[in-house]
């Protein structure tokens, strides 16, 4: 199935519109959450050439690193700390144009310049976050927020 992914489209929105149905098909018959998150991270990174894409899972009072694509990452993040911890605490998507301007930003890599973090909510609780970093300033916008939110809703019931 992975070989059949067609990553076409000119604009970012067209790429999301092509990719999301393919991800739905890719994970439809796979019950393993880790495998599905790994493939989602890989598909997003392959399609958009993002600097880093990955998941953090809520475990107790921390976010713990899950499947990702990119450079070595922070393993544990406290609730309310950095962009990921703040998105978890507030249960809302954060789009950060320049991570160096974000109070308390955790610099896992100095090459990361902008970021979007989308909480994954199941039964009223944040269970995970999808974290996407770019090595370009101001790389994320409302289009990314819309489609990444749509994407996490596909898997939210598996958490």
Structure commentary:
Helix content is 35%, strand content 26%. The chain is of the alpha+beta class and 159 residues long. The protein has a six-stranded antiparallel sheet with strand order 3-2-1-6-5-4, with helices on both faces. Strand 5 and strand 6 (125-134) form a beta hairpin. Helix 1 (12-27) runs antiparallel to helix 2 and helix 1 packs parallel to helix 4 (142-155). The protein is globular. The chain starts with 11 loop residues before the first helix and ends with a helix. The model has no long low-confidence stretch (mean pLDDT 92).
Compute the number of strand runs. 6
> How many strands, which pairing sense, and closed or not: the largest β-sheet?
6 strands, antiparallel
Distance between the termini: 23 Å
Q: Given the structure, what is the number of helices?
A: 4
Shape: globular
Can you give the mean pLDDT?
Answer: 92
Strand content: 25-35%
């Amino acid at each position: 199935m992975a070989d059949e992914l067609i990553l076409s489209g000119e604009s970012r929105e067209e790429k999301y519109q092509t990719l999301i149905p393919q991800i739905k098909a890719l994970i439809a018959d796979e019950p393993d959450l880790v495998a599905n998150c790994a493939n989602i991270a890989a598909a997003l990174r392959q399609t958009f050439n993002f600097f880093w894409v990955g998941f953090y899972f809520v475990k107790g009072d921390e976010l713990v690193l899950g499947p990702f694509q990119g450079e070595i990452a922070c393993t544990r993040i406290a609730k309310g700390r950095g962009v990921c911890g703040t998105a978890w605490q507030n249960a809302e998507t954060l789009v950060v144009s320049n991570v160096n301007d974000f109070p308390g930003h955790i610099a896992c890599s100095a090459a990361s310049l902008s970021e979007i973090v989308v909480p994954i909510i199941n039964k009223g609780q944040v269970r995970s976050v999808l974290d996407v970093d770019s090595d370009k300033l101001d790389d994320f916008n409302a289009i990314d927020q819309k489609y990444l939110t749509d994407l996490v809703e596909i898997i939210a019931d598996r958490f």
